[in-house]
């Protein structure tokens, strides 16, 4: 854990490495996940599963083609990336290892699109959980057997663990895919139609994804350089960058796993609603998902605002990022809802609009980083994150309204649960005014907090239901 903390906290180098990986991975995937999901969903809905084998064969070949090209490009540029983009802090070896994993990662994305399309994400979820556990095990094993405080070596261990677990995930996911496909009735038809359909869906997404991912990588690389202009050293700039992107944001995004799982299921659902023009059902599902996401995200905000010290100590055994967590956690509702909206828009065949929204957001963010961070430092960067999330959410919500005419109920989705969660926080601040670092007791307090919040939420909803029922009865009597 000491070696990993060295990478994340003191240097932030691993976050820069991962930004390079995300760009290479975006090229390797080239929009195939959405294409596979939509084609599979439409085939099942219209043809009872016929032709799935042919369609998925084309998707896998598409993934392999772009995955191999991405592997070659990253290998060729590894030396430049390590010396310039990574400030010469590490050797190219981690990037070479990363490149090898790209074809496997690309095929996994295609197969995950298949399971999402057939509404069996549980299989890929189990595979992903096992992969993450294996990645942690590999990394801990390397650090235990070959301990080192050398930054480059520790990064190599982290990337090697990720690459080996990716290969394992590919093997497991492919086996699950073969077993599942044999259960379905399939017939071989011309693959030309499927190939054209894959290209029609995937390439626009791929092109805009390249731009978006490239801008995202540029943004991540620009942050340490801009912090250096704020009269801090290179190491201090990387340290502050690592504290935000490598420590604080993972805490904020961890509960989003639940939201991401729901979002992936919305793509095939909304594709079917859009195909049938069933806007009534679409708006019903949208209302339910928005309400669930809002209640969930505001509850998480309340937990982070009430127990920031305990959470930071429990995860990292230090309190250095407590202020960052408190400042950034109110953005959770924007981040989580935006992921839901993006999934809905992709299901409605509005993926290009989503990408252009992200591109516009990234360009605006890059300009702000270049101009504001050198003046205000790390707190300027926090303000930029807030502006970026608000801008992205607003544009996405406008796109959803144009596509479905769904109206966002700000009072029911935001104001009411916020008042209830602040009430819960006030009760805890009055009753429990000391910090407790015992893990079991912290978990117990968090569970009690969630229970009180749910109780208040349930009580309010019951009161609202009774009130509405009385009004309805009065109107009927009249």
In short:
The chain has 478 residues and is mainly alpha-helical.
In round numbers, the mean pLDDT is 81
Number of strands: 0
**Quaternary organization:** single chain
Q: What is the succession of H and E elements? A: HHHHHHHHHHHHHHHHHH
Kindly name the structural category. Answer: mainly alpha
> Rough shape?
globular
The helix content is over 70%
Major sheet? none
> Beta-strand percentage?
under 5%
Q: Could you describe the 3D structure shown?
A:
With 478 residues, the protein is mostly helical. The chain is 86% helix and 0% strand. The protein has 18 helices and no strands. The chain is globular.
SSE layout:
Elements: H1 2-11, H2 13-29, H3 32-47, H4 52-85, H5 93-117, H6 121-145, H7 151-182, H8 191-229, H9 234-253, H10 256-276, H11 279-306, H12 308-316, H13 322-328, H14 332-347, H15 351-376, H16 378-404, H17 410-431, H18 439-477
Helix pairs in contact: 1-7, 1-9, 2-4, 2-5, 2-8, 3-4, 3-5, 3-8, 3-10, 4-5, 4-8, 5-7, 6-7, 8-9, 8-15, 9-13, 10-11, 10-14, 11-14, 11-17, 14-15, 14-16, 15-16, 17-18
């Amino acid at each position: 854990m000491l070696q990993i903390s060295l990478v994340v906290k003191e240097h932030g180098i691993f976050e820069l490495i991962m930004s390079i990986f995300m760009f290479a991975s975006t090229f390797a995937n080239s929009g195939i996940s959405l294409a596979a999901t939509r084609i599979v969903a439409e085939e099942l809905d219209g043809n009872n599963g016929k032709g799935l084998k042919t369609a998925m064969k084309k998707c896998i070949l598409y993934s392999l083609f772009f995955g191999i090209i991405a592997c070659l490009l990253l290998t060729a540029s590894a030396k430049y990336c390590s010396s310039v983009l990574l400030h010469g802090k590490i050797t190219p070896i981690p990037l070479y290892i990363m490149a090898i994993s790209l074809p496997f990662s690309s095929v996994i994305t295609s197969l995950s699109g298949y399971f999402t399309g057939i509404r069996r994400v549980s299989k890929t979820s189990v595979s992903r959980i096992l992969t993450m556990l294996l990645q942690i095990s590999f990394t801990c094993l390397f650090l235990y057997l070959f301990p080192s405080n050398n930054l480059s070596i520790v990064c190599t261990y982290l990337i090697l663990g990720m690459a080996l677990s990716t290969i394992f995930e590919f093997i497991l996911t492919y086996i699950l895919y073969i077993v599942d496909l044999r259960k379905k009735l399939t017939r071989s038809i011309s693959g030309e139609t499927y190939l054209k359909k894959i290209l029609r869906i995937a390439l626009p997404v791929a092109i805009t994804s390249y731009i978006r991912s490239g801008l995202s990588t540029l943004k991540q690389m620009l942050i340490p350089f801009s912090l250096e202009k704020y009269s801090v050293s290179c190491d201090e700039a990387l340290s502050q960058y690592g504290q935000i992107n490598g420590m604080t944001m993972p805490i904020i995004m961890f509960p989003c796993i639940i939201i991401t799982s729901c979002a992936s299921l919305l793509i095939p659902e909304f594709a079917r609603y859009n195909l049938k023009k069933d806007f009534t059902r679409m708006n019903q599902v949208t209302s339910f998902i928005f309400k669930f996401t809002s209640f969930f995200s505001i509850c998480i905000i309340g937990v982070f605002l009430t127990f920031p010290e305990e959470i930071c100590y429990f995860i990292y055994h230090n309190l250095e990022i407590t202020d960052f967590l408190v400042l950034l956690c109110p953005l959770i509702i924007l981040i989580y809802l935006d992921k839901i909206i993006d999934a809905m828009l992709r299901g409605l065949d509005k993926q290009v609009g989503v990408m252009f929204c992200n591109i516009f957001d990234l360009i605006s963010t890059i300009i702000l980083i270049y101009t504001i961070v050198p003046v205000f430092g790390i707190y300027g960067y926090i303000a930029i994150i807030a502006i970026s999330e608000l801008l992205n959410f607003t544009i996405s919500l406008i796109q959803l309204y144009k596509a479905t005419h769904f109206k966002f109920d700000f009072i029911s989705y935001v104001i009411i649960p916020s008042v209830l969660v602040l009430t819960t926080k006030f009760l805890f601040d009055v009753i429990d005014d000391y910090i407790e670092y015992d893990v079991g007791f912290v978990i117990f307090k968090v569970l009690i907090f969630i229970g009180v919040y749910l109780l208040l939420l349930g009580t309010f909803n019951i009161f609202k239901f009774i009130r509405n029922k009385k009004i309805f009865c009065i109107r009927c009597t009249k």
